[in-house]
């Protein structure tokens, strides 16, 4: 599933809904969590660290399940079996979460893209505010969940433990220790009001790591940051096993973080 190389710019070829591939990826890059989804439209002006652009670490179109022939997204397959994250995350939750919830966001995203293409075709922009919000909500849901699946792994196949290399050094620098990061990350995610996400993100101007909260799929994320790890704290992510014990779920999530993948995304984000 994974392409570990730095993503290349996406071409501007046309697709069947009247939206170029570049435009589709560009639209996703405007979503709340989609600093990770916009390599095609990143401004390549460079920064004070000499890197080529803030979005160089984005997920690829292939990783996001983009079909250029249809101009639509599909739900990427899980990189492991439904039961592979047991006992931390149960198989029934994984199946419902991936096959139902994530699939619903992809349907909503494709619907919004199609309706916005109709706006351009017909010139009737009376519902553009509605469909723009649908794009943000469902598109962010798709991007967020794709990252979520990618950055988990079974305990016996890369999940858990601690990061290494440049990511470990950055966490040590920003949070004092891995334990300091872990405590802040879990506390921030636990304290999200209602439904949302806890994030570890790279901020390119200062080249810093930040722990952040997100509401819904797309609210409260700082413009320009690149999320490299996210934990879903919507109740559908944990309620079957943990009920209202969100803190227990977050402790279990730490056991299945694929730090090797998070480290690769960190390197991508830094360009």
Architecture overview:
This protein has 271 residues and is mostly helical. The chain folds into two domains: 21-150, Fe,Mn superoxide dismutase (SOD) domain (Helix Hairpins, Orthogonal Bundle), CATH 1.10.287; 155-270, Iron/manganese superoxide dismutase, C-terminal domain (minor pseudopilin epsh fold, 3-Layer(bab) Sandwich), CATH 3.55.40. 41% of the residues lie in helices and 10% in strands. The chain is built from eight helices and five strands, in the order H-E-E-H-H-H-H-E-E-E-H-H-H. The chain has helices spanning 21-29, 91-122, 128-150, 165-175, 178-190, 239-242, 246-253, 259-270, and strands spanning 66-67, 72-73, 196-203, 208-215, 226-232. It has a three-stranded antiparallel sheet with strand order 4-3-5. Strand 3 and strand 4 (208-215) form a beta hairpin. Helix 2 runs antiparallel to helix 3 and helix 4 (165-175) crosses helix 5 (178-190). The longest helix has 32 residues, at 91-122. The chain is globular and about 55 Å long. The model is unreliable at 1-57 (pLDDT under 50).
